[in-house]
Amino acid sequence: MDQGTTLTQFIIEEQRRIPGATGDFTSLLNDILTACKKISCAVNRGGLIGILGSAETENVQGETQKKLDIISNDVMIEALDWTGHLAGMASEEMDDPLPIPDMYPKGKYLILFDPLDGSSNIDVNLSVGTIFSVLRCPEGVENPSVEDFLQPGTEQVCAGYALYGPSTMLVLTTGHGVNGFTLDRSIGEFILSHPDMKVPETTREFAINMSNQRFWPAPIKRYVDECLAGEHGAHNKNYNMRWVASMVAEVHRILTRGGIFMYPADSRPGSENGKLRLMYEANPMSFIIEQAGGASHTGRQRIMDVKPEGLHQRVPVILGSREEVEVVVGYHGDGKDGGREVA
Ligand code: AHG
Ligand code: MN
Ligand code: MN
After folding, report:
1. Does ligand 1 lie within 6 Å of residue 275's CB atom?
2. Binding site membership of 93 for ligand 1 (Cβ less than 6 Å)
3. Which is the most buried residue in 16, 35, 143, 221, by most CB within 10 A?
4. Where does residue 150 rank: exposed (0-12), middle (13-18), buried (19+ CB within 10 A)?
């Protein structure tokens, strides 16, 4: 019986196509997978082992952390710090990059991650995920500083996310398309279930937190008003709307059936550049969406071209089906229409 291609087999076969590959990167990916399986177990058992709810601490962005935010962060660190493949790690839940402890060998990669994305959904048993982005550590750097992490999204070696939904899935790109794997719990392996994922070019589905409408810049207001006007509006078609409040879940839906996702800049204090973080949310998701044929933009600039200025920097995000993203970007025009000068 054909048991399917395991993710381990898939990445080893990919490695064989790269002349001179040492297997370091393949091992790193395997260690990331192990961490995601552990987080999946913790998320799955949640209420049974008393790990739902708030930890009553705040992260560097002033957001209240859930117990599972901290547990997932710890799982990532424990799974990755000893491996010898990394020179440093950075996370949404840590103020500064975490150096590799002296007792372990150092490797040539850097990883940035959002250990638990959409964690406001955890207590209501909706989908959450883990997002990661892998960069090369600059040549000759032993102890990377923040600046060494501040590389544009175009420099990513790999990006992926785990989705802890009805099934646990792992979706991955190394710059050669996007592939999706489903965790078969009976054997503990991710199996290739969604080869060569593609974002449909057109869509009739948008995702945005409508409760912020009064704070949006003009181009976003205009686009959403036109969607709401349906077939009698400028787009001549009726739209559907979804908002899960979990970027992993929204991106996964868009990879599966198309759509446009927006978290724009808005006029609330602290939201001048939106909410999502460039380094461990916007960049990895942009790499995945572009590799699947979609587009990802701030409205002013391709997200992966943004020159990072801070580890926890936020960025407006407009991503998904190419044609629709281009319409919204077009509305940003020359900046005289209320679109913010950001990024
Ligand atoms: P996180 O749980 O890692 O802080 O990320 C949540 C993010 C993102 O996943 C989601 O799209 C967005 O925040 C939802 O924000 P609102 O609650 O403002 O809708
Ligand atoms: Mn997040
Ligand atoms: Mn998070």
Report:
1. yes
2. no
3. 35
4. middle
- How is residue 30 written in tokens? 């395997």
Ligand 1 contacts CB of residue 209 (under 6 A): yes
Q: Are 157 and 135 in contact (CB under 8 A)?
A: yes
Check if 266 has its Cβ closer than 6 Å to any atom of ligand 1.
no
Closest CA relative to residue 339, chosen from 169, 331, 95, 162: 331
Please give the average per-residue pLDDT across 274-297, as a whole number: 98
Using the mean position of ligand 3's atoms as its centre, give its distance from the Cα of residue 170 in Å. 17
Q: What is the mean pLDDT of residues 286-307?
A: 98
pTM over 0.85, yes/no: yes
Write out pLDDT tens, residues 73-120.
999 999 999 999 999 999 999 999 999 999 999 999 999 999 999 999
Residue 114 Cβ contacting ligand 1 at under 6 Å: yes
The H or E element that residue 33 is part of is helix 24-45
Q: How far is the CA of 118 from the centre of ligand 1 (A)?
A: 5
Distance in Å, CA 63 to ligand 2 centroid: 11
* Domains assigned to the chain: 7-194 (3.30.540.10), 205-332 (3.40.190.80)
Q: Which ligand is nearest to the CA of 122?
A: 1
pLDDT per position as a tens digit, 228-250: 999 999 999 999 999 999 999 99
**Which residue has the CA at smallest separation from atom 16 of ligand 1?**
245
* DSSP track, 63-90: PEEEHHHHHHHHHHHHHHTTSSSEEEEE
Residue 2: both structure tokens together: 């054909």
Around ion ligand 2, which residues have CB less than 5 A away?
A: 114, 117
